[in-house]
């Protein structure tokens, strides 16, 4: 199938008669008698205007190798065409053979400096369509598809809601301000818990009456130390309990007192137990220790109410719980051998 094209101005592309030299070869003029007789040339058909196709938005299709200037097809083997199908003969249709006038050439021919190819057409720059207004577009779903969601209408906030929000705001402000005050006080005063220790202990007497009940007499010297440099401590309630094998045998109350900065206060405590019945297991254990003059172990537990004064404007009260383990020699001259105390809130 051949496609018409405009007349080329390049002499190399003009049709030549058989036996004529190329355009760049010089030929001497010959006489009219020496010229060979040539058959009359056929009249050149009137060139038809190029067919203009409608512009498309997709790229042009790939060209056949013979139209791309290739002398040989690609090395890959060409696919074999399928066998022709046998079709039924169609009825013949009469064709009107009346010659139609040739169309007139276009007013604007193709410029010679631009390459012309029947498969390529000049695509005019397509004008970009106007962007839609996003305010008029419906809401989109997960994959960009329009949804039928309806936004709830705006409602006026209730007065109760405003009151609740104000209460929450004031509450959190108070919590934050209180935390800042506690942090500042701690960084300024550096408070420490008071310390409780047993400085000395004496076991004056300890025996079993009728091998079933315990009678004992013990004297303790308790030491209360205030380790703060800027805080004063007031001990308003102090009570100590004496235990043997987990069984309470004596208790004593200490009068209130105060300690200034970096001060230690000693308190003498007299513990007396009378007619205290012990379990049979602990009774047998104590009897053997007294007979062998072995070391005796006791436990001392105390409950203390402390009030700390941070200057003259801030006071803080809390409870302290102390637990001590003391080991003494046998009576009547039992002395302290070892003691260990722990104090916590």
From TrEMBL:
Biased composition (Pro residues): 74-83, 100-112, 127-137
Highest taxon of source: Eukaryota
Keyword Cell membrane in annotation: no
Keywords: Membrane, Transmembrane, Transmembrane helix
Leader peptide range in chain numbering: none
Location (main, coarse): membrane
Subcellular location: Membrane
GO CC field: membrane
Keyword check for Amino-acid biosynthesis: no
Region (Disordered): 1-150
Membrane-spanning ranges: 159-189
Protein's name according to its UniProt entry: Late embryogenesis abundant protein LEA-2 subgroup domain-containing protein
